[in-house]
Amino acid sequence: MTVSARKRECRRNVWAVAAGVVLFVLAAVIGRVLNRTVYGSEGILRLGWPPLYAWWLPHVGPGTPAALAVAALVVVYGPPTARRVSWRVLVPSVWGAAMAWTWSLALVDGWGRGIAERLTTSLEYLQSVDDVHDVPAFLRDFTHHILVGSPHIWPAQVAGHPPGALLTFVGLDRIGLSGGAWAAAWCITVGSSFAAAVVVAVRALCGEQLARQAAPFLVLAPAAVWIGVSADGYFAGVASWAVALLALAATRTTRVPRLASVGAGLLLGLAWYLSYGLTFLVVLGAAVLLLARSARPLPYVTLGVLPWVVAFTAAGFWWLDGCTTLVERYYQGAAKVRPYGYFIWANLAAQVLTVGLATVAGLCNAARPLRSAVRGMRRRSPAGRGALSVLVAGALCMMLLADLSGMSKAETERIWLTFAVWLLPACALLPRRAHVGWLAAQATLALLVNHLLLTGW
Fold first, then answer.
1. Nearest CA to 47 among 343, 257, 299, 446?
2. Residues with Cβ within 8 Å of residue 151, at least 6 apart in sequence
3. Segments in the chain below pLDDT 70
4. pTM here?
C-alpha cells in the first residue's frame, strides 16, 4: 500500500470513528431531553442514562487493578503472541484471556453487586428457580404466566425468553450449583468463550492470518462489560459455537464434518429455546454456507435441531405460541411508551460502546473488500479480507433486522451481544502497525464505561 493510500485509509477511519462518537453523543443528549420533557419524572425512555440501561455512578472496585493489568498485558503482548504461538495454544488462550478480562470488569462493581447478586434481582431468572418442581408441568403451563394479569406472572426476564433459559439455571441448582455466584460463573465462562468460537470460525472461513490478527480484539471486547454478568452473554457463547461448528463443517476443516454439523444443530436448537431473537442466526448461518459454497451440512444441522423441537413440543411448549404471547407482553410494558423513532437509531448508537471504536473503524475498512467480494462471488468464493467482510456484513444484517422488528427498544447493549460479537473481527482489517493503539482504545472505552456507569441487568 502506498503512502497516499495509507493516508486516505487513516482519514476514512478517523471520519468513521468521529461519526460513531457523534451518533452516540446525539443519542445521549436527545435521550436526556426526551426523558425530562415528555413523560414526567420517570422518563418515556425508561432509562437512567440513555441510550444505555445504566446510571451515572463513578466508582472503582476490587476488579480495577486486575482490569488494568489484563488490558496492559493484552495491548502490549497480545498482537505478537497471537502471531507466534501455535494454533492449539492460541484458541484456549483467547478464551482464558477473555474470561480474565470479563471477570475483572465485573468485579469493578464488587463481588455482590457485580457478580453474586446480578442474577438474583426481582426481574431475573433465579427468582423463579424454586417455582419449577415438575419440568413437564412447567413447560405445559409456561405460556399461561407470561401476560400481565396472568396468575403467578413470570418475572420480566423469564417471561421474555423461551423456557430453556430458566431451565438452565434450574439445572445448575439441581446439581448443587445454586445461587447467584454459580449462575454468574456459568454465564461468564460460557459467554467469554465467544472469543474462541469466533476466532475458530474466522480461521475456517477467512484464513489463519486474519484470525490471529482478530484474536486480541476479541479478548479486549468492550462487550465484556455486559457479558459479565448477564444471561445474554451465555446465549452469545452458545450461539457463537453453533456458528463456529457450522463453519468447520461447511469448509470441511475438521476431520468429522458431519459430527460438527450435528453439533452446530444441537447448539442452534438450544439457542432458539434460550432467546426468541436468536432466530436471526439463520442470516449468519446463510453467510457461512455462502462463503463455503456448500449446503452439505444442512441435513445434519436439521438433525441436531430436531431433538429440541420434539422434546419441548412433546412436553407441552410450542415455540410459536410462546413467541406471539411474548409480543403481546412486550407491549404491555415499557415498549408501549418507548418511542420507536428514537430507538431505531439510538439502538445502533449504543453499539458504539459495545463493539468499540476500533470495530467502527474496521467496519469502514470492510466496505471495499465487501464490494469486491460481492462482485466476484459468481466466479469464486471470497477469501481473506473479502470473506471476513461478508461474515461481518451478515452479523450487521442480523442487528439491523432486530432493530427494524421493534422488539428491541433499549437495552440492546445486552440483548444484541450475540450479534455484536461477530462485528469485532472487523478489527483485523485495520492496519497491523496500528493494532496496539486501537487495542488501547478498546480497553480504555471498556474501562471508562465500567468505572463511570453502573450498568443494568
1. 343
2. 144, 145
3. 1, 3, 39-42
4. 0.96
